[in-house]
Design brief:
This protein is mainly alpha-helical. The protein has 4 domains: 192 residues, no CATH class; 218 residues, no CATH class; 104 residues, no CATH class; 103 residues, SH3 type barrels (Roll), CATH 2.30.30. Helices cover 61% and strands 4% of the residues. The protein is built from 26 helices and 9 strands. Strands 8-7-6-5-9 form a 5-stranded antiparallel beta sheet, with helices on both faces. A two-stranded parallel sheet has the order 1-2. Helix 12 runs antiparallel to helix 13. The protein starts with a helix and ends with a helix.
Length: 763
């Protein structure tokens, strides 16, 4: 498409989608001012602000036209149609109000620049290509944050709104832009990409790139690109990223923030060059593992990489005779197929077949449809790696996360879009802040363990499904689609995370309360046993110690745990009752009477803590006094009553279920017990229940009383509370794994590496 026509189409879309912003700003500011009165937020200048807004709305048509002219002027500047000489610039003093406009405009521009950094980087590269096609050298972005902020400032500079209205206008303008720019930049990037304006091709002979602050996104299908060497892939070397035949990462050389691996040295921040080298090294290592793994499959005759039952040399010779499919061809096939029903991928994820084989069969069928004969072509090494990595990734997600049947089709839709991502930007597998990576984490967080039993859970599933459908419908090698889908889903997930935090806090408080109650009961039972053991006493005193006094001790320990003196008073009451019984047995009536009079307040308080009112408490006290006043009553050694209505440990049944089948493995390794005892709050482990289902769990609390670790799932629901020794028993049985990652993508890639390392070690 002609560059001028493309630019005019971009201008038309900008005016169409952004031209109505002044009217939106007025409505938002008016609503804020109207809400200020009932909310008690109206200041002394409220009526002045309303008057200022009224004057602005009277100029609505003029201001809207001026704003549209400012937007159009940005495109004229981009084409070089309006070049101003320095001698034409007016000189003069700037008053405070205009200076404030400039400062707020600058803050607005910086905020938008930070929020939309990725799509703006892509847009800048494409506009640079378009500018070169137009024969100009202008590098400004006519729809960038600087231009949008300047258009707003120039539109309202002479309108002289009040200070409060001006601040509200800038805030409302930023909010309105936030609702529009994500989708708008995505559409413009897609438009420019479909018209063939992407990143310029690299210079031949690997010329050194000039240093640039921003670079557009990954390789465009319409642009020629250097193909990776596949005849002999070099082994990973420290400088593998500099070799065009090694693992290439488009855009990685100059896009800051795209890669976030761990720095090589924790002592000091790594330089961008060290980070790039580290990322490239990780990718090269991963490709080397994949190559060895696939070679092992070929030798075993497993998978679709070996045609029929031919020998390995014959298969290699047959494959060498075929033409490698170009990445552009593969992207075209995948783009055509990504809109089709994902039933085959869903069945593969259900365990009916290998997902990698299904992807290859699907792409081969699509290639046949567009006239590429699969019998005469083969996938390149880069394409094989992309297919295998995506298949291993999705398989790992379903193996290690509690994903329900409804989620399977949702993930199946994303298989081909992620194959396209892997083909154009393989740093997705190591760059922690990659948009496609963050979206998959958000979808897994929304779906994992989600049974759709509550309206909130159903809304989460619906939003996750909408995010996957949006990617399928709109993704065309533009990462802005993933960013927008993630932003929409993450907004709802933030509410879910707050609910999970509350649920986790409730689980912690409930566990803490149960353990404190159990500890208090144990202390009270021990105190009762000490006073009954070997002591001859009347039945009335024994019953009082076993029931009201025990309950009083439990309540005192729970309520007055921080005051030892109050606990001592409760325990002393039991000793005083024993002393009263001894005085009665020795017929020392006067001393007994004085002793009971001194105990009366404590006994009444003890009975009141059992729920008796003052009258009932005094009636019970009278019965106790009557029993002690009869010296001839029989006195025997009383047995401590058996507690049938109270569970000694309310979590014992829970632990019994988890430990069933694992307790017979013998005494756990002390080193393992010590390691598990060192788990901190927030650490993640992976449990396998008795049915074989994997449950990711987080340490939410460590009991100071019993040293038990409370584990909760991703919904904040209690899973298990167990000691380090009990967890070591599970680990010894292979049902507990530590060192898992907190995000789904990281954990899946860790599992992929482990699987590849294990398979490679067997060959």
């Amino acid at each position: 498409m002609e560059p001028l026509r493309v630019l005019e189409e971009v201008k038309r879309l900008a005016l169409e989608q952004l031209g109505g912003l002044p009217a939106m700003v007025f409505r938002g500011v008016e609503q804020s001012l109207n809400n200020a009165v009932p909310n008690g937020m109206a200041g002394p200048g409220h009526f002045e602000d309303l008057g200022s807004l009224r004057l602005l709305r009277q100029q609505n048509a003029t201001l809207a036209m001026r704003f549209r002219q400012q937007l159009g002027q940005g495109f004229d500047d981009f084409r070089g149609l309006r070049v101003r000489n320095r001698g034409e610039l007016p000189l003069g003093l700037i008053d405070d109000e205009q200076l404030e406009f400039q400062l707020q405009g600058q803050r607005l521009s910086e905020a938008l620049q930070g929020r939309y950094q990725r799509p703006l980087e892509m847009l800048r590269g494409r506009l640079t290509t378009l500018s070169a096609a137009l024969g100009t050298t202008c590098e400004m972005n006519p729809i960038g944050p600087d231009r949008l902020a300047a258009a707003f400032v120039e539109t309202f500079r002479e309108a002289e709104p009040s200070a409060s209205v001006r601040s509200l206008m800038f805030r409302q303008y930023e909010q309105d832009l936030a609702m529009l720019l994500g989708d708008f930049y995505g559409r413009i990037n897609t438009l420019l990409a479909s018209a063939g304006y992407g990143v310029a091709s690299p210079e031949p002979h690997h010329a050194t790139r000039p240093s640039q602050p921003f670079v557009a996104d990954t390789v465009e299908p319409r642009q020629p690109q250097a193909q990776p060497q596949t005849q002999s892939r070099p082994q990973p070397q420290p400088q593998a990223h500099a070799d065009p035949g090694a693992f290439s990462v488009p855009g990685l050389e100059s896009v800051p923030g795209r890669e976030q691996p761990q720095a090589p040295s924790p002592a000091a921040p790594a330089s961008p060059g060290e980070l790039r080298e580290h990322v490239a090294q990780e990718l090269a290592d991963l490709r080397a593992l994949l190559q060895t793994w696939r070679e092992g499959l070929r030798q075993q005759g497993v998978g679709s990489t070996t045609p029929g039952h031919a020998s390995a040399p014959a298969a290699a010779a047959a494959a060498a005779a075929k033409r490698e499919m170009r990445v552009e061809e593969m992207l075209s096939v995948a783009s055509m197929m990504q809109h089709e029903p994902p039933d085959a991928f869903a069945r593969a994820l259900a365990g009916s077949g290998r997902l990698a084989d299904t992807i290859r069969d699907h792409l081969s069928d699509g290639a046949r449809r567009i006239g590429i004969n699969p019998d005469q072509t083969r996938f390149s090494a880069q394409e094989e790696d992309a297919i295998d990595l995506v298949a291993l990734l999705f398989d790992s997600l379903f193996r290690n996360h509690s994903l329900q049947d409804r989620a399977r089709r949702l993930y199946a839709r994303l298989v081909l879009p992620y194959v396209k991502v892997a083909l154009t930007d393989e740093s997705v597998f190591v760059a922690h802040d990659h948009p496609a990576r963050k979206l998959l984490d958000a979808i897994t967080e929304a779906c994992e363990g989600n049974q759709a039993t509550t309206p909130q859970d159903r809304e989460l599933l619906d939003r996750a499904a909408a995010a996957s459908q949006r990617v399928v419908a709109e993704y065309n090698e533009d990462m802005a689609v993933f960013e927008l889908a993630h932003a929409e889903l993450d907004a709802l997930l933030n509410q879910q995370r707050r609910r999970v935090d509350l649920q986790e806090q409730r689980a912690v408080k409930a566990s803490m309360g149960r353990e404190r109650l159990g500890s208090a009961r144990a202390a009270a039972d021990s105190a009762v046993g000490d006073r009954l053991r070997g002591q001859r006493m009347t039945r009335a005193v024994a019953d009082f110690l076993a029931e009201p006094w025990r309950h009083h001790v439990i309540q005192t320990v729970l309520r007055e745990g921080d005051e030892p003196s109050r606990q001592a008073e409760a325990f002393n009451l039991g000793d005083a009752l024993l002393e009263a019984d001894r005085l009665a047995a020795e017929h020392r009536g006067k001393e007994l009477a004085d002793h009971l009079l001194g105990l009366e307040p404590a006994i009444v308080q003890c009975l009141a803590s059992s729920g008796l009112d003052d009258s009932a408490a005094r009636h019970a006290l009278a019965g106790l006094v009557h029993a002690l006043a009869t010296p001839d009553r029989p006195r025997n050694v009383q047995a401590q009553p058996v507690r049938t209505g109270e569970a000694e440990d309310e979590g014992s049944e829970e632990r019994r279920v988890w430990l069933s089948g694992a307790a017979g493995a013998g005494e756990p390794d002390p080193a393992l017990v010590a390691s598990l005892a060192g788990l901190a709050i927030g650490d993640w482990v992976r449990l396998t229940d008795t049915q074989g289902e994997v449950v990711p769990a987080k340490v939410a609390w460590v009991s100071p009383l019993t040293a038990r670790l409370l584990l909760v799932n991703r919904r904040g629901v209690r899973v298990l509370a167990a000691t380090a020794r009990e967890l070591a028993v599970l680990a010894g049985a292979g049902r507990l794994v530590t060192g898992t990652e907190s995000t789904a993508f990281d954990e899946a890639m860790r599992q992929v590496r482990h699987r590849l390392d294990k398979a490679v070690g067997q060959h």
